[in-house]
Design goal:
The protein is 35% helix and 16% strand. The protein has 93 residues and is an alpha+beta fold. Residues 1-41 form the Putative regulatory protein FmdB zinc ribbon domain.
Length: 93
């Protein structure tokens, strides 16, 4: 069951409540009977296992898709690099 954080709008008191998803949200402060509001915060996410990082090896079906897009990129980039290699080749000789 998740833990929800609430803060009173009247007294500023904060509290945590363990509730089911189907439970209604708390509405009254147990200290001053004021109005409660839910406090939302960032959630830490941990990716475990393989396949989440670019350096992980991929299956052959996804690498063939990547190869077709990379071959298109290498074709367009090979034209400028060949002209630069041609111009740099005489300078090296």
């Amino acid at each position: 069951m998740p833990t929800y954080q609430y803060q009173c709008t009247e007294c500023g008191n904060g509290l945590e409540a363990v509730q089911k998803f189907s439970d209604d949200a708390l509405t009254t402060c147990p200290d001053c009977q004021g109005k409660l509001r839910k406090v939302f915060s960032a959630v830490g996410v941990v990716f475990k296992g393989s396949g989440f990082y670019r350096t992980d090896s991929r299956s052959s079906s996804s690498s063939s898709v990547g190869a077709s897009s990379s071959s298109t990129a290498s074709t367009s980039s090979s034209t400028p690099s060949s002209s630069t290699s041609t111009s740099s080749a005489p300078a090296a000789s």
